[in-house]
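Q: My labmate handed me this sequence with no annotations at all. I'd like to see what the chain might look like in three dimensions before we decide whether it's worth expressing. Could you predict it?
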Amino acid sequence: MVIKTTRARLCRQLFFQKKTHSKLVRVYQPIIPTTIGEHIMNRRKILGLLQKDISPLFDVTDECISLWENNESSPLVISYPRIAQFLEYEWWRFDTSTLGGRIQDYRYRHGLTAHHFGVLLSVHGSTVRSWELGEFNPNKKVSIKLNEVLDNTKPLD
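A: Here is what I predict for the chain of 157 residues:
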């Protein structure tokens, strides 16, 4: 029997009841995640963990995990590498055939804000965002440095 439960705006969670030796057991059936919070909640429940169990992994409170899972807030980009490691996949999708997509993918993989990425290139964070959005292209000098950073597999310090 399928029972739909609502848990703070997430009506799509399905729980199945199995009968085992006259005892009903609720088994979590993952939803198709559309937000980062749903990705985290799916993985956590599949592993049978509580919010308080995973909050130290991201250096946040269990209340923060609850906000993420209920789509009331989003994690900071500095947490993205640890979240991807917990999920065992990268939930973001960028068109890496474009410069903007390559920059965003690099930033997310390394947990860098546009400002911090800009510091690597000696440009302002808003300039980085304009490249990501395809509004402007970097000049030749910055383009050389940018390609060195993006082609490097290790984060620059």
